[in-house]
Amino acid sequence: MRAYLYDNLDTDCREPHELQPLSPVSIKELEQSGVLYWQLDLDKDKCKEQVDNICKERNYMNRDEITVSKDGLGDLFDQKIKTFFTEHLHEDEEIRAIIDGSGYFDIRDKQDRWVRIEVQAGDLIVLPAGIYHRFTLDMNNYLRAIRLFKEDPVWTPLNRPCDENPYRKSYLETLVAH
């Protein structure tokens, strides 16, 4: 996993969009925004064991698998990619274990700048409830991930602005503490 400031250019969102000069963002800085990260073993059995342990530790009760690709989403591909890339938040954590392929999660940092997080096979990322973010594939147009959930699988995006949302307010309070 690697993270850096986003350049905000109005070009294909699947491009790297690295702000020049390159402005890397460390895992510690991501943690200050509430983002958690684990590097998973690519061996299938070891990866499953690691994911199971994280689920126990963080009380994730449910999971499913998603393939984000033209083949995986069929006629809904363009619509889903557009929806994923619209700035939004969730009232639950967003947890993704990338098991194949690659893509980008963009989050808003404390200064409301976009930080691009490049994920690939072996990365597990947790975005906190209430953080503004978005997702897109990279130019490979393929990602397969395990989605983890604390309760029943729910994926309800609340598009920005929703600053009065209690989960957003709670998230912002955690930033003040850092």
UniProtKB/TrEMBL annotation:
Enzyme class, spelled out: oxidoreductase
UniProtKB keywords: Amino-acid biosynthesis, Cytoplasm, Dioxygenase, Iron, Metal-binding, Methionine biosynthesis, Nickel, Nucleus, Oxidoreductase
Free-text cofactor note: Binds either 1 Fe or Ni cation per monomer. Iron-binding promotes an acireductone dioxygenase reaction producing 2-keto-4-methylthiobutyrate, while nickel-binding promotes an acireductone dioxygenase reaction producing 3-(methylsulfanyl)propanoate.
SUPFAM superfamilies: RmlC-like cupins
Compartments, record wording: Cytoplasm; Nucleus
Keyword Repeat among record annotations: no
Single GO cellular component term: cytoplasm
UniProt main location, coarse: cytoplasm
Pathway(s) this gene product operates in, as recorded in its UniProt entry: Amino-acid biosynthesis; L-methionine biosynthesis via salvage pathway; L-methionine from S-methyl-5-thio-alpha-D-ribose 1-phosphate: step 5/6
Cofactor requirement: Fe(2+); Ni(2+)
GO biological process: L-methionine salvage from methylthioadenosine
Domain of life of the source: Eukaryota
Binding residue positions for Ni(2+): H88, H90, E94, H133
Catalysed transformations (reactions): 1,2-dihydroxy-5-(methylsulfanyl)pent-1-en-3-one + O2 = 4-methylsulfanyl-2-oxobutanoate + formate + 2 H(+); 1,2-dihydroxy-5-(methylsulfanyl)pent-1-en-3-one + O2 = 3-(methylsulfanyl)propanoate + CO + formate + 2 H(+)
Keyword Electron transport: no
Transmembrane regions listed in the UniProt entry: none
Molecular-function annotations in GO: acireductone dioxygenase (Ni2+-requiring) activity; acireductone dioxygenase [iron(II)-requiring] activity; iron ion binding; nickel cation binding
Recorded family membership: Belongs to the acireductone dioxygenase (ARD) family.
Function of the molecule: Catalyzes 2 different reactions between oxygen and the acireductone 1,2-dihydroxy-3-keto-5-methylthiopentene (DHK-MTPene) depending upon the metal bound in the active site. Fe-containing acireductone dioxygenase (Fe-ARD) produces formate and 2-keto-4-methylthiobutyrate (KMTB), the alpha-ketoacid precursor of methionine in the methionine recycle pathway. Ni-containing acireductone dioxygenase (Ni-ARD) produces methylthiopropionate, carbon monoxide and formate, and does not lie on the methionine recycle pathway.
Name of the featured protein: Acireductone dioxygenase
Designated gene of the protein: ADI1
